[in-house]
Amino acid sequence: MNKQPTLTSMPPYSRRAFLKSSSAALVTTSLATKEWIPRHARAAESDLLRVGLVGCGGRGTGAAAQALAAESNVKLVAMGDAFEDRLRYSRQTLNQQKEVAHKIDVPDSRCFVGFDAYRQVIDNVDVVLLATPPHFRPVHIRAAVDAGRHVFAEKPVAVDAPGVRSVLAACEEARKKKLAVVSGLALRYNYGYRETMRRIHDGALGEIRTLQANDFRGPIWVKPRQPGWTDMEYHMRNWYYFTWLSGDFNVEQHIHMLDVCAWIMKDEYPVSAVGTGGRQVRTGPEYGNIYDHHAVIYEYASGVKLFANCRQQAGCRNDISVQVMGAKGSAALNTRGLEIKTDAKWTYTGAKNNPSQTEHDDLFASIRKGNPINNGEYMSKSTLMAIMGRMATYTGQLITWEQAMNSKEDLSPKSYAWDAEPPPSPIAIPGLTKLG
Fold first, then answer.
1. Is the pTM of the predicted complex or chain greater than 0.85?
2. Which ranges of the chain have pLDDT less than 70?
3. Is 124 in the same domain as 206?
């Protein structure tokens, strides 16, 4: 099965080696590649910004359309994915969107397939959109920053603590290089959430006492194994169900609500977490090794507690929300609306926006102004907060922030190739599974 029809095959890379010496493979670029090095400190209005997409699934395709809609002088010039079919479908989908089709210039020669596709995309662009399974985000962010590229990074940005530490370091380097790093934690770009948060931070609720974050939803896709798929391809096609690729769903999706809580707490993060979780409904092998429910109690240094619950089970009540209890009243932030209840009730009735579009609007505006946004700190620490919760539910132990941040648990495989073995994927058993 030919996975790389548009470029010469490259040797598999090792994530561990990359995180230790990340810039080595990107320092030696071809003469032709050097023409693409961006004006990273400032881009004048007349300069075309060349955009590349790494990860051509539904979210990546959406991010590309939003990036192209963000301003007039931008083009999508390169695309990369592990799978040729995903890349071709994404390119076809984008070319059918009349609002952005005229901003697409992606010939076959700039379509890159395979585990190393990100390298070629980065070589050809000024701004790179990273939307692969989360496992790959640390390597891709580091490579982009080393090459002097602006970054849009979907959430979460890692699946383990070594990955988080790598992203934190890369984002600090991006700050020094005046490179933008914008996070896909889109609620931070929601006008209503911003106004609600401003009021909470101004003291509308008084002292925060308790938080509750729910993410109750139904199941998602499963892709049945096909003849000819290796174990690695099966894992990659069903990446959501393997902790090494997704981080588990409390990291991959519940991070949105956890990040809202971090925002409420002015980006203070909890000192400990303890919880429970398991596989109650998704018990078959087709569901990999992730859980279908997690319940975590996070505690802050002040004694404030966050009760974080998430579930993916069919036929149950859905609820995606954050509740805040303070000395003066309460607040509710959810898909139905935003309100604060004290002596009086305030409900957000202001302008509405598509935050996933606004984050791209702000990204490109910041590049043009020479004042690049850097969301690196909160996107990394909110990712670790979610991973910390998984550590607590998998082990059944109380996990401190320091334990989570300093964990040496590395979920990456020994090498990245279609005939390579994916990492072992045992189902965690609380009380028996040990903290890495």
1. yes
2. 1-46
3. no
